[in-house]
Structures are given as structure tokens and as C-alpha cells.
Amino acid sequence: MFRMIATGLAGLAMAGASATAMAQAPATKGAPEAAAAPNQGFAAMPGAKDVLGTVTSRGQTNNITKADLVSFLSRYPVPPADERELAYNQAMEMIAGAHLFQHYLMSQRIQVPDSKVDAEVENARAQLKKQGQDLDTILQQNGSSEKEMRKEIADRVRMDEFMQAKATDAALRRFLNENRDKFSGTQVRASHILLKLEPTASREQKEKVKKKIEEIRKEIIDGKIPFAAAANKYSEDPANASGSGGDLDYFRNDGSFVEEFTDAAFKLKKGEISGPVKTPLGYHLIFVTDRIEGKFPDFEANKAYLTQAFRAELQKEIVNEERKSAKIEIKPMPRDLYPATEQPAAGAAAPATAPAKP
User: Distance of CA 182 to CAs 20, 273, 275, 315, Å?
Assistant: First the structure.
């Protein structure tokens, strides 16, 4: 199956209202969050400064190093071996997206007073002192500096200023009306057929799989085979091995499934079958078998929730637009990125963006 795995790779996972994977720039080494709960030792790892990717936009360029990536991924358990390359590619894209957003914010010329940065640095220093730790030592252990920390604080403050100006009541009400299904708790019941694609699939391979799933859809539409039988016959979702007919039961528009799948499912009426839907796993056909309408929420009672969701969606839209003119280069996953013996921690949450298998 392909339910999203627990909480987002980029920090605060957003299921409709919490932050999306792209809702904040990831907390990299040197940020106040890292100082309070440090992930130590990244600077000393083999190849820590190796550049795995570069992001160029609006006249600015950032490198993504191995240390940056490991710091980012270290907050989540190690994914299964056959999902690691997908998790790597998605994590790198998210880190790249965070840089694109910061490049955009810098272009908006939002002023950040030094006094705000000073206050946050001193607060972090005081909090660490209460714990018997020293900020400068923590930063040094993480291969960072107070200068880098101050930049990350300024970036965050700049983002907050920008978002506060955008999240007006009028904008939030419009956002609520445009996302009724997401906020009302509406549920759909759907079945699907999946034909897999590897992350590195060529254009020809993608076209071949897309053509095949279109042919399956035609079989169903022409009445040659029921959807459930087609799912059991063709679907490459392991859940169909039990003869489930591709049934996913009821779900909400809350991040339970990958975004592309959920968006397509909630646009369908009961009894409709989608065209080919592309997700990180491959191509799907979606058949909505039932729909239960939810209750439209009260604006004032849910304003904080809406604000958080609005911010995440706005950032995603900006990043998607910035990608059109940006230059992003990502190298293949280093073969030593995941220790062969490392296993997920018991009871820990796994990354949200790598679709799960059963």
C-alpha cells in the first residue's frame, strides 16, 4: 500500500492543517532547535562536506552537503532498503525547496532587525545554560557557528513576517472555501490500481507504463472487466496480493495518502474512475465507491489551524513556481548513506513522504 508514513520528512508533517513537508525550512545544523536538542557529530562524519546537490535561483546558490542531509534524515528511522533511494530523492528535493523559498524571501527585501536575532540567540544560550550546556560548544560540535545560527534565525523571522502579512482574514476565508473537503472531514472510499515506476525511470518507461494503465482503464470502462477484478489482476500494490480488489477503505483529505493521489480522489464523484494519476510510486487508477460529506468548520474556532495550513500551502505554491526558473542539481544517493546494520527505532515515527509498503 502507499499510505504516507507518519510525519513529514521536512519537519512538521501537514495533514491538512499541520505544516506540510515544505511548511518550514528544515532545521539544519546551527539552528536554535539544533542547539536545544543537538544532533551531534555530523561535522566529523566521513565525507561530511561532500556536496550532494546545488540549488541556484534569484542570483543565489546553496550547496546541500552530506552533513546537511544526514542531519535532516536523522530525525526519522531508516526506511526499508527498497525505499531508501526514494526517501533520499524526496529529502533532497525538500531541502532544495526550502532553499528556493529562502531565496524568494530574500528577494522580497523584508528587513529583520538585529535586535530580534540577538534576543533569540541569547534565549538559546540561556536555555542551554540551564541544561548545563554551552551554545558555542554545541555549535562547534555540529560544525557550525554563531554566524550561521544568526542567519537561520533571520531566515525564520523573515518567513514569519512574510506569512503574517499574507494570512489576512479575507485570505483565510477564501482558502477555507477553496478547501472544503480538507477542513470539513469529508471522507471518500476508494479502490485503486497501481503500476509501479522507479524514481529513476526514463521518459520512455514512464510513457510505457502510462499507456498500459490507460489500456486497463479502457477495459474497465468498456465493461470487459470489473474494477476489483482488474485490480487483483494488474495492480502492483502488494496489498492486492490478498485479493482486496484495490479497496483502500474510507479516508480523509488529511495527508494519509500521498498528495497527488488524495487530490485526484477527492475531485471524483461517487462511481467515477480517474484517468492515470502520477505519484512517486507510479501510475494509479482511482475508483471512488462512496463519499461521506463532513461538516463545514467554524472560521473563528479554527483560525489558528487554518493559518498554519494556509502558510504551508502558500509556501508550496511559491516553491513550485520558483522551481520553473531554478537550477537544481542532485547527485545519486551515496552508497554509504545508510549503514547496513541500522534499523528503525522501536515506536518511532517514519518519514511521511516516502510512501509505505505493507
Answer: 14, 21, 22, 18
